[in-house]
């Protein structure tokens, strides 16, 4: 038995040409292992191939080449078992307006062949905070409630792996927090979580490991901590005790004077000790009132890795 929840080898997808659109190679040979029990981030710019990858995992898009193994089950050899091991919360709420939340969960459980006695409708409604809406028609639910119901539907068959495709795009803070609380709880209970998001601070906060894909290729896969450590760039922010000009700087440091009077200095921490900047500032006759450093964020790592490959 493998320690990976998902094992993807040489995964390719080419969408066939239609009408005027030429064929599109959306995935160009992805190798990716996702460890059991992790919260894994799948990131990439628009059109990178994330949805294609997720849809292949969900069994909604047929791959062109390669292998996909979900929870030890090969998707081609054991399609039923591999499908039963994964639950997908899609981006868009496509809900049948004539079903109630309880009804939707029941139908979904039926689709997955969950016997009536083993259905956890009440428990799931409780988790997603829709107990009091159990019998309300879907069309009367708010956008946030529909999103929560989508999460509930992904859970009816108690999958080992839960995929959330852009779960917080356009949702308010309250719903976002609720989703993250649920995700953490499910992960604490042992569920492996795969997440795509455009909000990099969210990935930074939530994910243990991250893969970035671009133009159908994986360009990096590492722990979030290591990824953040890759960027050697740091910023030192100095508040002078009165308005001052930016002192002249050597080549290894770039600086700027902010509109609020603070001075920011960006440098490579492996090459330049912060003390060098502090002395430079003091030597310019500036009295330092306050000083702090800013670490690199995932956003900068992401931009540095994807920017040079655009085109
Ligand atoms: N059904 C399809 N037919 C043809 N081309 C497609 C199809 N679905 C996606 N593509 C193309 O494949 C590429 C990858 O798309 P995909 O939706 O997987 O990217 P993505 O990373 O999920 O982007 P986004 O964040 O915008 O959803 C894009 O160039 C897209 O236009």
UniProtKB/TrEMBL annotation:
Gene3D superfamilies, sorted: P-loop containing nucleotide triphosphate hydrolases
Alphabetical keyword list: ATP-binding, Nucleotide-binding, Transport
GO MF, one example: ATP binding
Residue ranges annotated for the ABC transporter domain, each copy included: 6-240
Keyword Transmembrane helix (UniProt): no
Keyword Transcription regulation applies: no
Lineage top rank: taxon: Bacteria
Pfam families in UniProt: ABC_tran
UniProt protein name: ABC transporter ATP-binding protein
Organism the protein comes from: Yoonia phaeophyticola
